[in-house]
Amino acid sequence: MEKKNTVGHTAALITILIWGTTFISTKILLNDFTPIEILFFRFVIGFVALMMIYPYRLKLTNKKHEFIFASAGLCGVTFYYLLENIALTFTMASNVGVISSVVPFFTAILTYLFLKEEPLRINFFIGFIVAITGIYLISFNSTSKFQLNPLGDLLAVIATLVWATYSVLTKKISGYGYHTIQTTRRVFFYGILFMMPALFLFDFEWELKRFTNPVSLFNIIFLGLGASALCFITWGYAVKTLGTIKSSIYIYAVPVITVLTSIIVLHEQITYLAAFGIVLTLSGLFISEKNLVQKNRKKTRV
């Protein structure tokens, strides 16, 4: 059992290390690709990889499940990543990384409203206020290089709401009893399907010769195979082994990884005000989740 938990923690850590650097890869690719192009190529690669790994057709036990899969693909793939990629054209990668850490807040709220599984406590709202204050400091620091920084940060916040919706949908999907790779592949399929209209709306261009650039090729493969295909599998294993609460704690490391990577790779400047905002955001998340983690530990001891 202890060995299994160790593997679970390792899987969660690998997932977060990769997800924490995806903002950097996307930021680099935005030099030669549009947000919709990155999104399309990334998930097509991920879908093909999952098809090769587990080439078995998903047989639905209930036709109503198809609607949930379609909704999950629309929210978790098309809307979320399109909003995130567009946000990166206006704001720093470190901003998007930190703002994404607020996902647990919105997820908890939507889970409470629609699934009625976990009551919201006073510490949840205190933590939320602290985190939002941190986000404000990060978004409106006076030394930002981008004039439209607040717009990019707003898009990133909307993206977290969309991802929270996706989280509620995937929680329902997890109870259907299907194979994780099959469900992930079906979500990817609908995500790619729904982004098709956006390909024409945002002037999508194939221009595959752009992949002759080793940097572009490496980053798109990293996003497709690593951040999309691999991470959905490793994260699913971590949640299954450790539980939702323990695995979600690793999400707090995402902004730290993103900020450190953005400094090293993109040479972005992090001001003292933004750094204080990061501390507030992470503190708010810990305050919000503290009672839930303690409650989970008590159950484990019993």
TrEMBL record:
Location(s), subcellular: Cell membrane
InterPro entries associated with the record: AA-Vitamin_Transporters, EamA_dom, EmrE-like
Membrane topology: Multi-pass membrane protein
Tagged with keyword Lipid biosynthesis: no
The organism's place on the tree of life at top rank: Bacteria
Domain EamA: 8-139, 151-287
Primary localization: membrane
Keyword Metal-binding: no
Keywords per UniProt: Cell membrane, Membrane, Transmembrane, Transmembrane helix
Spans through the membrane: 12-30, 36-54, 66-83, 95-115, 122-140, 146-166, 187-204, 216-237, 249-266, 272-293
PANTHER family: INNER MEMBRANE TRANSPORTER, S-ADENOSYLMETHIONINE_S-ADENOSYLHOMOCYSTEINE TRANSPORTER
Record family assignment: Belongs to the EamA transporter family.
Name of the protein in question: DMT family transporter
